[in-house]
Every structure is written in structure tokens, then in C-alpha cells.
């Protein structure tokens, strides 16, 4: 999943599905994928690339002589690998003009007779046959941002054979307590922004005779949302994780429904494992697994993990959710977290979240619960 120039996230793979809201959403979401520099960022992610490459070639029996559907093919590399692994036919669906590049790559790699690139959305395209395998790199920040999995579910329900497999087949979302200086930096940025606003208010009054102070509260609220309540992309080091991570959502890609992923709610206990730390944020990441199915298991299971890694991790990084105020914790304490994530009403590809966290000290003392709203935009 690439990042847009303004720092927001683009979708994980490329766009194979169709937004369900407004035409402007369609245009904004899909337009970025016509550019090779977005594709290059994803193609340069070695963790991502190695996981998909291994999942295909170590499980070649799933592909040999089979029909494959690649949802959101982008540059077409997953379709090309599928053909190289022995697929009889690969339908590579891509909504953007990147489809032309995918056709060119298929020709250049000698698989144009196998890989058929179809420009369109999986909600609209018609295939001449059912498929044995659906492969897609649909994952967004914190797994579900972008809602591209909706399109994969649509493709599965329309085109996958009853004994077919999905690549990936399973996914999990994780949450962990962390220490980070990002909150201090963001608070400094907020203070600078408010100092600048206050000077603006003074100057406007002095030079133009208009008192703008009535808007100060609204201006601050805007900037608090931007600096303190918006998820922050970061590649964390493992030593920033100060407690035991917990799974907050598990997804079976063969059976999941859109209703199941529309809202994610969980209650977890996060034991603290570091003495004298400051719990300043929670971090979210995901992993996906290539297991095949119960009827047709993988020869070798492969995992793609986006957890904090001392080698630098992936282009997905992790999402950091600042806790205000931070909490001093000790080894043996635990943090009880009630978590909810729902799609934004304004744009279903973005997420609104709420955390309620309560510190339970090892001594038995409980701190008052604190609720904070966050946004994954």
C-alpha cells in the first residue's frame, strides 16, 4: 500500500474494486494507481514481495493447470508469478490505466497467452468461467483501511469455485502498548500552530479591526484532531513495545462477509513487561497467512507480518494511536482496552476509532478509565 503525496495512504495493492459511495470517491481512490511510482514503492517492499513470491512458488500445486483471478493486479506481478507457477489461465483485473502496463509486462515476460488483463472493477467484469484461486494484495493500513477487501469478497462470491483457495487465506489485526516520543513532538507542533494563530488574531485586530478570537476554540479543535487524534504512520523498533500484543480481529478470507469487517470491536488486556516505562500510545499492525483451505491446504504455509521489526519493517509500517495523557506503568501492570473501529460516515474507506483504556496496577489499584477518539485517515 503506497502513500499519497499529502501523507495519507493509498490502497495496499492496486484497485480492483469499486467504491460504493460517491463518484468523487471513485476518482480519488483510483486515480493514484495509474502511476508507476506508487507501484514501485510496493514492489520495493521486500517483506511483501518475498511473502507473495514464496506463497505462490512453494505452493505451485495450487496453481499448476488452474484458473486464477488476480483482484487489483496493478503492475501485474502476482498474475505473472501465477502464470510462471503453471496456471492455465490468469484473469488480472485492474480498474486503472495501470492495466496497460500490466499487459506490457505480461508480454515482456512471455505470459501474455496466459495472463488476460481486464480493465474494470470486479463488481462489473464478467469472466467466462469460475476460478480455482483468487490472489490479491488488498491490505491497507491497519489491515482494513481502504475497504478493498470488500471487492475481494465480491470476487470470491461471484467467481471462486466451492473448493477454491484464496491468497492470502487468513488475516489478523494486532494491538500493543508502546513507548514513543511522537506524542511530545505532536504536542510541540500543536503549541506552535496555536502560537501562530494567536499572533494572527492579534494582527487581524490591530490592522483590520476584526476580532477573530471567537474562532480560536474551533481552530484548536481542528489541530488537536490533526496532531493528537489522527493515527500516525511509523516503523517502530521492537524495543518500543512495552507489553504483550493482543489479537483484536481474526479473518478467514474464505468465509468473511462485508458486515463482519464493517465494524471491529474488541476488549483485550495488555500485560506490561517493562519496568518504569511510559505508556504513551497503542500501536496497530496486521499479519496475513497463506494456508490454502481445509479441503485444499497449502504445501507450505507462508506468513506476511507487519509487526515492528529491527530491520525496518514494511511500507505498511504500524499505526500509532496516541494516548493523552500518557500513563506511567511498571512490569506486572496491565492495561485493559476497549476498542472499536467503524467506517467513517463521510468516506467509507477511512476509519473512526475509540479507545477506552484503564490501568490496573500489579498492586491491585485501578486507575480511572480514559476514553479517546482517534481517526485513521
UniProtKB/TrEMBL annotation:
Coiled coil: none annotated. Its EC number is 2.1.1.319. Gene3D superfamilies: Hnrnp arginine n-methyltransferase1, Vaccinia Virus protein VP39. Residues 192-360 form the Protein arginine N-methyltransferase domain. GO terms for cellular component: nucleus. PANTHER family: PROTEIN ARGININE N-METHYLTRANSFERASE, PROTEIN ARGININE N-METHYLTRANSFERASE PRMT10. Ring-like homodimer. This is Protein arginine N-methyltransferase PRMT10.
Amino acid at each position: 500500500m503506497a502513500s499519497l503525496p499529502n501523507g495519507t495512504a493509498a490502497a495496499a495493492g492496486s484497485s480492483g474494486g469499486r467504491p460504493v459511495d460517491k463518484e468523487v470517491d471513485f476518482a480519488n481512490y483510483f486515480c493514484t494507481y495509474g502511476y508507476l511510482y506508487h507501484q514501485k514503492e510496493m514492489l520495493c517492499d521486500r517483506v511483501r514481495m518475498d511473502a507473495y513470491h514464496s506463497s505462490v512458488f512453494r505452493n505451485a500445486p495450487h496453481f499448476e493447470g488452474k484458473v486464477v483471478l488476480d483482484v487489483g493486479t496493478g503492475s501485474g506481478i502476482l498474475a505473472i508469478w501465477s502464470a510462471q507457477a503453471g496456471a492455465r489461465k490468469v484473469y488480472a483485473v485492474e480498474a486503472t490505466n495501470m492495466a496497460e502496463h500490466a499487459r506490457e509486462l505480461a508480454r515482456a515476460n512471455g505470459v501474455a497467452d496466459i495472463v488476460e488483463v481486464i480493465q474494470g472493477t470486479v463488481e462489473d467484469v464478467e469472466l467466462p468461467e469460475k476460478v480455482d484461486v483468487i490472489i490479491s494484495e488488498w491490505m491497507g493500513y491497519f489491515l482494513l483501511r481502504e475497504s478493498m477487501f470488500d471487492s475481494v469478497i465480491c470476487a470470491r462470491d461471484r467467481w471462486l469455485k466451492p473448493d477454491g483457495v484464496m491468497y492470502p487465506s487468513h488475516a489478523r489485526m494486532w494491538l500493543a502498548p508502546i513507548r514513543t516520543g511522537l506524542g511530545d513532538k505532536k504536542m510541540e507542533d500543536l503549541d506552535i500552530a496555536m502560537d501562530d494563530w494567536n499572533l494572527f488574531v492579534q494582527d487581524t485586530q490591530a490592522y483590520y479591526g476584526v476580532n477573530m478570537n471567537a474562532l480560536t476554540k474551533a481552530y484548536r479543535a481542528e489541530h488537536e484532531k490533526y496532531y493528537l487524534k489522527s493515527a500516525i504512520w511509523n516503523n517502530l523498533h521492537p524495543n518500543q513495545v512495552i507489553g504483550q500484543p493482543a489479537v483484536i480481529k481474526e479473518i478467514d478470507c474464505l468465509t468473511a462477509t462485508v458486515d463482519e469487517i464493517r465494524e471491529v470491536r474488541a476488549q483485550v488486556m495488555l500485560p506490561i513487561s517493562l519496568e518504569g516505562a511510559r505508556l504513551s500510545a497503542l500501536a496497530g499492525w496486521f499479519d496475513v497467512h497463506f494456508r490454502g483451505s481445509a479441503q485444499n491446504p497449502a504445501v507450505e504455509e507462508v506468513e506476511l507480518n507487519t509487526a515492528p521489526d529491527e530491520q525496518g519493517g514494511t511500507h505498511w509500517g504500524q499505526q500509532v494511536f496516541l494516548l493523552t495523557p500518557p500513563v506511567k506503568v511498571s512490569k506486572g501492570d496491565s492495561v485493559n482496552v476497549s476498542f472499536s473501529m467503524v467506517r467513517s460516515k463521510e468516506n467509507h474507506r477511512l476509519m473512526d476509532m475509540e479507545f477506552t483504556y484503564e490501568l490496573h496496577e500489579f498492586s491491585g489499584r485501578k486507575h480511572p478509565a480514559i476514553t479517546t477518539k482517534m481517526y485513521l485517515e
